[in-house]
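Ticket opened by: R.M.
Priority: normal
Category: complex prediction / small molecule

The reporter submitted a protein together with SN-glycerol-3-phosphate and asked that the result be attached to this ticket for the collaborator who will pick it up next week. Submitted input follows.
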Amino acid sequence: MAVINTPMKKRAMIAIAHRGASAWAPENTVAAFDAALEVNCRAIELDVRLTADGVPVVIHDETLDRTTNGSGRVASTPWLDVRRLDAGSWKHPRFAGTRVPMLEEALQAICPVARPVIELKVAVDPPMLIDLLQRYGAMSDAIILSFDSAILQSIRRQSPDVTIFQLVKDWSPQAVRDCRQAGYTGVVMRFDQWALDRAVMAKDVLAHAWAYNVNDPGAAAACGAMGIDGVITDYPDLVRVQPGT
Ligand code: G3P
Ligand code: CA
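Result attached by the on-call engineer:
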């Protein structure tokens, strides 16, 4: 386990459980969220897609094949058929019977103990999302992510208050400036895209610079040295923030 003190702005780095504690339990399931909470992780990332009948569900891939015993596209499958699938056995037999959760069930499991970090893989109905966050008292805790800026803009138009971070595939200073213009307060990139000057700029222009794919102590330490303030990791015990930082 890496113990990190960030050198910049003296702000502690937090761990965000990637798809829940996905190293230890089937990703994007309540079992993975519970496993993250058990190690006192206080922010949990999850992926949202829509079923054929428009139910927001928590699953990463476009298809059901890899993480359930079903097959076919999530967007072509009605919720009741998704619900019947086993989303745990692929990880380990002890997770047999684990289900694909609705977004609402994920919020029930995560809030208010941890912050939900919600990656929108597809466009969702903005009023539906904001209403759900309000019902779970998560408006100030939730962070909305997407690679798709049009999706994020639709959420920003619905709510000036909800926190939004942009996921960025390739670094560009203009992308960071665009985030500020759009009212987003963080940028999230894969660990290997970050460098010290990039992190400094991102934190100056926005407030937060997060990295994903941070799955070993060396990567976590490198993030700490750059001033990255959030690491999205399959191992949420990777980063232990020292008290008082
Ligand atoms: O949210 C950061 C990260 O989860 C983006 O990549 O493929 O794991 O959704 P992916
Ligand atoms: Ca994700």
